[in-house]
Amino acid sequence: MWILPWGYREGWTICTGLTLTGLAMQNFVGEFDVAAMPYPVNVAACAILAVVAVTVHALSRKYVVFRWFSSPQASITALAFVLFMSVIEGLGVATINSWAFTLVFAYLLLVLAAVVMRRLRKPKLKRDAGFVFSHAGLLLALVAASLGSGDLQRLRMTVARDAAEWRAANERNELVELPLAIELKSFDIDEYPPELMLIDNETGETLPRGKPTNVLIEACPTVLSLSDWEIEVVRYLPAAASVMTKDTAFFTEFLSEGATSALFAKARHKTTGVSSEGWVSCGNHVFPYRSLRLSDDESLIMPPRKPKRFASEVRVYSKEGESRESVIEVNRPLKYEGWKIYQLSYDESRGKWSHTSVFELVRDPWLPAVYAGIFMMLVGAIFLFLSSTENQTYNKKNKE
Amino acid sequence: MTDWLLFPYFALPAGLCWFVGAGFAFKTNGFRRAIFFTALGLCLFCVFMVGLWISLERPPMRTMGETRLWYSFFLPAAGLVTYISRRFKWILSFTALLSFVFVCINLFKPEIHDKTLMPALQSPWFAPHVIVYMLAYATLGAATIAAVYLLVGKKKRTTDEETISLCDSLTYVGTAFMTVGMLFGALWAKEAWGHYWSWDPKETWAAATWTAYLIYIHFRKSQPKRRSTAALILVGSFLLLQICWYGVNYLPSARGRSVHVYGQ
Ligand code: HEM
């Protein structure tokens, strides 16, 4: 080992050395925390990486040792270690924030940078375009994503209806004041039609055990089948209130805040013919839920309604006093003053009648660089796709 | 929902077509008929998928059963393209067989085919992300078949050279699709969850799988003579892919932690 030219063995040894060093550092200085590397520390780290890479590249003209760092052997061993560590992470052992991973990852970036620089020494457009898009794109995306996470801010803001809020909580649950405020005008949920399913009276488990089935009630009146039961939905009240009488409860239309949904069903067992009828409701924070007992073992229930879409109508204010109205919903974040505002959640105990809305506010100044890298990799993937036919070294005509 | 009841009536004839097509591939002058029957099977299968999409009022890509549907479709399709471009006699039999395994799983172990789709999944990124990934899985599945063929078959330099070159082509295509699928996933995650990458278990396994295929590509470039080692890397990568695809649903470390494991 260590006899020039280097090969795989040196690669394995270097990566093992880095891993052991990382484990030792973990012992002495504790967990690596990328959030502790905000600007300008991350820019400095980026500069150090660049200087080391350029030095390795410059020295590789003269010394064979340094040429090794841009070799496939160095690449493959480094990639294998990253693979190994992500598998460990995938198995549930936190690895990604360890010093060992950080060192191996930094080394991988160094190798990748050396690879790109070597190829670019005498570039040929046709030969190198795909290579550069894949490798330089990956390098850019990885550098920007890893070092950029030191500047990443993700905050959670809970806003009550008709109130404005300018503070949000960070990951450590500390309140941070923001240069913008959000006023919640209204909050809306569209729900999927109600569902029906069976549960075990004894245990409350959903049936059939292991792979519960549910039916969506899209029309009323309707007849459906659920396991061994034929179920006729006679009435459906999308906005209902339960009314208690001395010995029973029924549901009636109720068109105001706090209403729940209920339906009246008749069930008949397909083989035994046993039947029963009654109201079923998912209930909410105002009204209790109600199930229909079908037999000694089974009951019919309506699980909580599932949201199809939820959206907040807001007015956002900047520090300068400017403001703008907008709607924020899942998958449709709002961009404002360098922040992206996401619809995150709401008061789930109140569901449809939630008076609050929860937003996530994200600021990531390095995002454009990550996106540029991603875009280059996408172009690189097209080249990779097209180059798949290049390594056909034989004549197709000779087959058959 | 009722459309799943029709599944056997489309899937079984489609499977039959694929096997008939695969049979013709072994006949002299069977080239055109092999293509015809495989394509006919694909058309039948496609009709069912379109019908299901319409009846569900959303892309059929959410449950495992639905993604298996795409896999069963893309696998013979990848086999067909390979057969046309490379004329490997055996590729259609393998893709037909593997595809049929997935058809059978859907026939005998159907899972609930729920119509509802949580808001985060209602995105224009959803369909391209899943379709591209399924294309990648199918192509890489075909590459694995070729790698196994190389490992267990008779060792002969000329044919081995052809087989591994087929592995290369399929892996290039598959990795290209996988790269696009992963990056689409990142762009979508940014819109839906606020960040493009968060080392969620599913993402972690996706990264591991992708890295494994990169290792194969680079190993082949630098050590072209070590074909068996390369074939082993390919098989190992495909095992990682299985964990990424559905294995995470069963990993205790991922339970309840992954936003991409849709509990039922
Ligand atoms: C986006 C991910 C990547 C893809 C799609 C990719 C693909 C490729 C392909 C197709 C080649 C052969 C190019 C040719 O012969 O023209 C290649 C070469 C190479 N790649 Fe990668 N690669 C990726 C990432 C990496 C990484 C992370 C490293 C190292 C850390 C690396 C190191 C190398 C090296 C050393 C070569 C040989 C360079 C040369 O011949 O000049 N690649 N890569």
The description of the largest β-sheet of chain A is: 5 strands, antiparallel
Q: What's the helical proportion of residues of chain B?
A: over 70%
Order of helices and strands of chain A: HHHHHHEEEEEEEEEEEEEEEEEEH
Shape of chain A: elongated
Strand content of chain A: 25-35%
How many DSSP H or I helices of chain B?
9
* Record field, number of beta strands of chain B: 0
**Protein chains sharing the most extensive interface:** A-B, 62 and 64 residues
* Count of discrete alpha- or pi-helical segments spanning 4 or more residues of chain A: 7
Rounded to the nearest angstrom, the radius of gyration of chain B is: 19 Å
Low-confidence stretches of chain B: none
The average pLDDT score of chain A comes to 90
Major sheet of chain B: size, sense and barrel closure? Answer: none
The portion of residues assigned to helices of chain A is 25-40%
The outline of chain B comes out as globular
Taking pLDDT < 50 over at least 5 consecutive residues as the criterion, the unreliable ranges of chain A are: 393-400
Work out the oligomeric state of the chains in this entry: heterodimer
- Give the radius of gyration of chain A: 31 Å
Q: Could you give the count of β-strands of chain A?
A: 18
List of distinct ligands in this structure: protoporphyrin IX containing FE
How far apart are the first and last residues' alpha carbons of chain A, in Å? 49 Å
Structure characterization notes:
The complex is a heterodimer of chains A (400) and B (264). Chain A is of the alpha+beta class. Helix content of chain A is 32%, strand content 32%. Chain A has helices at 8-29, 41-59, 64-67, 72-90, 99-119, 125-148, 367-386, and strands spanning 153-160, 164-169, 175-191, 195-200, 206-207, 214-216, 222-226, 229-244, 249-253, 260-269, 275-281, 292-293, 298-301, 307-318, 323-329, 334-336, 339-346, 356-363. In chain A, strands 4, 5, 6, 12 and 13 form a 5-stranded antiparallel beta sheet that branches. In chain A, strands 7, 8, 9, 10 and 11 form a 5-stranded antiparallel beta sheet that branches. In chain A, a hairpin with a 4-residue loop joins β12 (292-293) and β13 (298-301). In chain A, α6 runs antiparallel to α7. The longest helix of chain A is centred in the middle third of the chain and has 24 residues, at 125-148. The model of chain A is unreliable at 393-400 (pLDDT under 50). Chain B has 264 residues and is mainly alpha-helical. Chain B has 2 domains: 1-110; 120-264, no CATH class. Helices cover 74% and strands 0% of the residues of chain B. The longest helix of chain B has 37 residues, at 157-193. Chains A and B meet through α4, β14, β17 and α7 of A and α7 and α8 of B. The complex binds protoporphyrin IX containing FE (HEM).
